[in-house]
């Protein structure tokens, strides 16, 4: 990984951030006749180029909403997102002295909480592919009050792809991901990358909206998104960027499906907890201890 370190602990993985990111595994390819193989490769190329475009579009969108992102979260959740993020950090079991990772860190809310959890003897890395989000995060780091800084771990901000984490195997004692899994173009790959970089016995807590199968909660969520979230986003000039929320939640695996995906990624324990009256959810997945 090529990195550039700035004065505010900003490190940038150059670049390949929007590289092709679909899972290219094609089982039994060698047994296929040549003309069928050619067809498969073309289909893969189409899929790869679609995923690349999707990832690039999302990166652009998150850079665009970065200036209003924190304010929107506070207003829309009535400040509750701070409580849910604290719960995620607790569920990650981040402890004093550990090196912890926050993937899709955005402007750094969860990374800052992790930094308090692991304390001055620990270390926190926040990773995101939207540079404007990372700039906000590192700016906020400089603004922290001295008493909080003294109790917090040193932090590093890395520009990189959740689907190709630029870290060694088993290099983190805990990890978090807030509102990121729904946005990646390959969820199984994102989970297997998290599994790879965690140490044996370590956990990741993945907080996001919940694709709740309960029709009452789902109906309320649909109503709230259409009648509160999108209109508010309109007043911030980012309505179009928030219209994607509902379809992205409906496409997102349910809690039970997320547990299955975590097992398939190699985790030996996976539990999805409903949060915020079931509107949100947190997948807690633990890597085998041996
Ligand atoms: C909704 S924001 C969440 C930010 C923060 N975790 C929070 O909870 O407030 C999602 C973040 O995921 C990042 N993201 C989405 N896909 C990514 C990927 N493949 N690699 C790295 N970051 C990604 C976006 O840039 C964005 O900052």
From TrEMBL:
<keyword id="KW-0949">S-adenosyl-L-methionine</keyword>
<dbReference type="InterPro" id="IPR004033">
    <property type="entry name" value="UbiE/COQ5_MeTrFase"/>
</dbReference>
<dbReference type="GO" id="GO:0042372">
    <property type="term" value="P:phylloquinone biosynthetic process"/>
</dbReference>
<keyword id="KW-0934">Plastid</keyword>
<dbReference type="InterPro" id="IPR032904">
    <property type="entry name" value="MenG"/>
</dbReference>
<dbReference type="InterPro" id="IPR023576">
    <property type="entry name" value="UbiE/COQ5_MeTrFase_CS"/>
</dbReference>
<protein>
    <recommendedName>
        <fullName>2-phytyl-1,4-beta-naphthoquinone methyltransferase, chloroplastic</fullName>
        <ecNumber>2.1.1.329</ecNumber>
    </recommendedName>
</protein>
<dbReference type="InterPro" id="IPR029063">
    <property type="entry name" value="SAM-dependent_MTases_sf"/>
</dbReference>
<comment type="similarity">
    <text>Belongs to the class I-like SAM-binding methyltransferase superfamily. MenG/UbiE family.</text>
</comment>
<comment type="function">
    <text>Involved in the biosynthesis of phylloquinone (vitamin K1). Methyltransferase required for the conversion of 2-phytyl-1,4-beta-naphthoquinol to phylloquinol.</text>
</comment>
<keyword id="KW-0150">Chloroplast</keyword>
<dbReference type="GO" id="GO:0052624">
    <property type="term" value="F:2-phytyl-1,4-naphthoquinone methyltransferase activity"/>
</dbReference>
<keyword id="KW-0489">Methyltransferase</keyword>
<keyword id="KW-0808">Transferase</keyword>
<dbReference type="GO" id="GO:0009507">
    <property type="term" value="C:chloroplast"/>
</dbReference>
<dbReference type="GO" id="GO:0032259">
    <property type="term" value="P:methylation"/>
</dbReference>
<dbReference type="Pfam" id="PF01209">
    <property type="entry name" value="Ubie_methyltran"/>
</dbReference>
